[in-house]
Amino acid sequence: MSLQTVPSDSTEQRPNRPEDVQAMEADARLRDDIRLLGRILGDTVRDQEGADVFDLVERIRQTSIRFHRDEDRLARRELEQILDSMSTSETVRIVRAFSYFSHLANIAEDQNNIRQMRARAAAKNGSSGVLAETLAHAKAAGIGPDQLRTFFKTALVSPVLTAHPTEVRRKSTMDREMEIAALLDRRERVAMTAEEADAGDEQLRREVLTLWQTNLLRRTKLTVLDEVANGLSFYDYTFLREVPRLINALEDRLEEGGEQAASELASFLRMGSWIGGDRDGNPFVTADVMRGTLRLQSSRVMQFYLNELHVLGAELSIAAHLADVSEELRNLAERSPDTSPHRSGEPYRLAVSGIYARLTATAEKLEVEITRRPVGKAAPYDSVRELQADLDVLHRSLISNNARVIARGRLRLLRRAVDCFGFHLARLDIRQNSAVHERTIAELIDAANPGMSYLALGEDARISLLTNELRSTRALVSPFVKYSDETMGELNVFHAAAEAHAKFGSDAIPQCIISMCKGMSDMLEVAVLLKEVGLVHPSGRSAINIVPLFETIEDLQASSSIMDRMLSLHDYRRLVDSRGSVQEVMLGYSDSNKDGGFVTSGWELYKAEIGLVEVFERHHVRLRLFHGRGGSVGRGGGPSYDAIIAQPGGAVNGQIRITEQGEIISSKYSNTEVGRNNLEILAAATLEASLLHPRQSAPRREYLTAMDELSNLAFKAYRGLVYETEGFVEYFWSSTVINEIATLNIGSRPASRKKTRAIEDLRAIPWVFSWAQCRLMLPGWYGFGSAVEQWIAEHPEQGMPFLKELYQEWPFFRMLLSNMDMVLAKSSIAIASRYAELVPDEALREKIFGRIRREWHSCIETLLDIMGQDRLLQGNPLLERSVRHRFPYLDPLNHVQVELLREHRAQNPDEQVLRGIQLTINGISAGLRNTG
């Protein structure tokens, strides 16, 4: 928070390679930005809190840097003495300062990433980017534009935003941070006069001061509709404009050097959402909330269309006596309610006014709020296709009258946006736990068949009963029976889904997801419930996709056999065929990780995909996988491109859906350029995995055998610690911030599925989040080290050379280790030992933490050996420098958090103690970036 905010790298060797020189220059510019923001923050702290607090911040910062840079043990003791001697009031101020520094450092890093993206684009004459490179690879492989257009006709790339509560920042602070980022960007890109530069510096100081005086923490708990509103912000930041631009840019690239295609490129990129539709464990997502969600989504996209039409009308000032227009355009203009004499000779403006009037009438019909009003009355559109048809009239008239360049402007982007977003904006999934569906069906069937107990039936009997219900034309629900609140709540949600189809179109809610799906009856129960509201017809047609979600290790292992039997079942297969013979299957990364550990989860997911690909090929049904990945490695996170490319052959096949969760949403999509790049990554990886190596050779059998053995050993080690060690539950709840996370107001959903302390009932998000806060990141690595050691002992003839070969030759294994490398680099066993001291039982503490510490050292040692590295992140110098620079600012926050936890748990009544804990959670999360 002074001129020396980031430690100097001047002691490192001077680089010789051009790419090293470029990296060092980029790093220097990053340090300059961090120094600037740190200096402004320091000045703000001095002005607002006084010189004493500023001096204390500086002492802590410099001592922490000395400890990390020189491994100075005296510095560590000095740091601990400073931190332990502070009052609660001083502690809160210090925590705020270090937390804000982490947020500002993130802004500088993001701007540096953008700077480097631009530099690469400039070096390659604007043709850089992962999508451009993938298209070049396709061309080199002999795949032409026509083949690519055919591919995109049936392709689907769908990022799905979820409200999973790992984003600790308020939108108010995010807005201020985005303003700071915009000011940094302007300094970089605009040649300013001295006066402009001074004004820019003053504005930076104004924004940092406003940020300092803005609450980091939410004072009230978020509602589901609050979460919906927060999610919709990213459409303004990125999606509404960048999704259409990306598809149009790809369309242009396919037409380079050749004739124009007969038809436009299909809109393969579609946004999805769980926010407001995910009921699994969230009692606050009701039918009314879902209706409110759909209205908010529609309102956002309708307002966007109206704003664009308003500007388009101003732009299309084309006079009829200066340019020809088509007959259909003339007819469209004549139907406009706009009677202004100023536009009497401007048919395009009249046509746009007519479209505008019809769209406002449509918004009124859909009961969604808009701020703009029409110039006159008009009939609403019955469907989005009617709106598209009117926009197409404008397009064809411009093209046919030699105004292609005008047609390629705002009108083209609007036409593409309407095609991508319709009247619904995002495709909302509805999701519920299979146990809830089971209870609902049981109540309905038992009421309709007195004396029957559905829950007492075996699986085969349930399947028989449910298939008969699917064929039946009678209703199962009776108006004369009083059902339980839970059953009525579920039925109301399905009725609301049917209403949404009628109101907004079938794309509004295209999927119904079944959490914890364990058998065929779980899927058939949902089909019967959908039939009750008309979304499934007894004739075998379905208006919605029924999607099983396999989450635990056991369920992943059973997934292929379950789907084999489902696709062999005539009554269900008819539903699949009515959906274009496409069946979506969702795979859960988070719960499988919590269930079996990082290594086994990754491996069982990979094997499940291989099995599903084989089953679906045999049944001639197209498989679409939906990957439920979290933000952190412990929940299946990591680089999206690598993850998609590492999928087994045939698992992508042109269609993929993938969750974007928590703080990952803001880090990927709050900045327009970064958001566009991340969308390109998803599209490029899907294209490459599908076309460039759709049937990449399967790994050698000895690779598969070795991975099976490693997985079994890692599973045994992980389960042995987490589920079979007496006292582990007590250790976890005592040594982490799991209790205090619940006070943060960061989401609407409870932390546990049931009111118990059992690990089985705990949600994966707070499980991973808690381990990140204490800097262990245990779910992202535990079990790997001991598994490798034991495997080598059992296979001395293969040993370490074979594992190194695995790493070099197999993308899956390489990705597994790369993700562990990243997560271990952010861990600190020294910091974690401080949290272990919070466990009152000394014997329990030493027993469990001793095992964790040994496994941590073993894991790092074996990982580095296999990867051929001397240190963690050696192959990723940019991330390595980032992590190294952050530690001196994270460690004081961790130290303070431990002391505040100790006071809070000793029943200290001072409310600043809990507030201090909450602030440290915020700051540590910001410093680590992907924590949940």
Describe this structure in words.
This protein is mostly helical and 932 residues long. It is built from 37 helices and nine strands. Strands 3-2-1-9-8-7-6-5-4 form a nine-stranded parallel sheet. α24 (640-645) links the parallel β8 and β9 (655-660). α2 runs antiparallel to α3 and α20 packs parallel to α23 (598-619). It is globular and about 85 Å long.
Distance between the termini: 28 Å
- Spatial strand arrangement across the major sheet: 3-2-1-9-8-7-6-5-4
- Looking at the chains present, what oligomeric state does this protein adopt? single chain
- Principal-axis shape equals globular
Helix-residue proportion: 55-70%
Note the main sheet.
Answer: 9 strands, parallel
Structural class: mainly alpha
- pLDDT averaged residue by residue: 89
The share of residues in extended strands comes to under 5%
Summarize the structure in short.
With 932 residues, the chain is mostly helical. The protein contains 37 helices and nine strands.
List keywords for this structure.
single chain; 932 residues; mainly alpha; 9-stranded parallel β-sheet; 37 helices; 9 strands; 64% helix; globular; disordered N terminus
